[in-house]
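Hey Z.,

So I finally got round to the 2-phosphoglycolic acid thing we talked about over coffee. Here's the setup:
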Amino acid sequence: MSGIRTLIAGNWKSNKSAEEARAFVKALREGLKEKKRDEREIVVFPPFTSIPAVADELRNSEIGYGAQNVFWETAGAFTGEVSPVFLKELGCRYVIIGHSERRTLFGETDEICNRKMLSSLRTGLRPILCCGETWEQRREEKTFCIIGEQLNAGLHQVPFDAEFDIAYEPVWAIGSGKSATAEQIEVVHSYIHQWLQRKGFASRERVRVIYGGSVTPENVDRLIAVPDVDGVLVGRASLKLESFIRIVDFCCPGEKGASP
Ligand code: PGA
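And the result:
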């Protein structure tokens, strides 16, 4: 389909066992079946072990699913790691790369994110590369510099016609209950879109820039309406059915999914 589809992504983090995940997506599918939502792309990100149950329950559904992390090698002696090939085999369309929790709690560097980007793309997964500044970096006016570095390193050698997404997730807004303001989001998203264009990455249809960090049913309409926001990455508010459905059904005057 032509035009940009607004991405609504639910990152469950380390929540929902296989059976809980199955029950959730079953109810989600049921809850969303009344309306057609061609301009919106809905994707959930269960923990690895819950992916098969979600895949089974979402067979022939418009709702997509992906993984929250991936390893860069496709096979070998790498205890505890999950190959992109295994994810692809489970029907994953997406993979999140470089979430700030992976960077801060598990020491993932930009170089690691880049390896994961390249191998995911080679395998046919669509990566969502996360970037964002800490509160301290923002205070020191280093936001653009940090994001520029994360993009530069994370997208090193990524082909210009590749299809992927960028999630702007200010670290201070994640899980804090306090999202960034519309003004703060607008300038960063515009910076990212310009950065991508300047480097030669194709069109907006191939690379969306989505926002994450304390997105809720209460603020989603306002956040999605911000220029240059092509979707949202939702943590906590994606865990409850009602709140996720409300987010999926965000109201946007002059639907963003229309062709630009
Ligand atoms: P949050 O998480 O919505 O709970 O702030 C967002 C994320 O970590 O992707």
